[in-house]
Specification:
The protein is an all-alpha fold. The protein has helices at residues 3-18, 24-32, 34-55, 64-73, 80-103, 109-118. It is rod-shaped, with a radius of gyration of 35 Å. It binds zinc ion. The site of zinc ion (ZN) has 7 residues, from helix 1 and helix 3.
Length: 121
């Protein structure tokens, strides 16, 4: 492949994808060069295939985020969609634990007397 072919390659690719002519300084070369024409044909085919794929809408699997995050961060990865419910759940559990600990805290004589005065148990 000649140097001119290498210089023309991005312009050939651009013309194939955008379906326009190659820019004028390189057009005479690409019109007579079989390698550039082959590259243009291959790029055109690839562009058409990509455009056809873009029209297809495939729904991602439900566990895709989990699988990707697990692959990236290991088995302890938490998908972003689970982070808020997990944070709320953790806050509720910790508040419940705090209430239980407060309720069953050891009673001192002073706190028992205070509870009797205020009517609490
Ligand atoms: Zn060429």
């Amino acid at each position: 492949m000649s140097l001119v072919c290498e210089l023309a390659a991005p312009f050939v690719a651009n013309s194939a994808v955008d379906e326009i002519d190659v820019v004028r300084p390189l057009r005479t070369h690409t019109a007579g060069c079989l390698k550039c024409q082959a590259r243009h044909a291959a790029m055109s085919k690839t562009a058409r295939e990509l455009i056809a794929l873009a029209d297809e809408h495939t729904k991602a699997p439900a566990d895709l985020e989990w699988r990707v995050m697990s692959a990236l961060e290991g088995d302890l990865a938490v998908p972003r969609s689970w982070r808020t419910p997990m944070a709320v759940g953790a806050a509720v559990v910790s508040m419940a634990a705090a209430v239980i600990i407060w309720r069953f805290r050891p009673q001192t004589p002073a706190s028992r007397a205070e509870s009797r005065v205020s009517g609490k148990t």
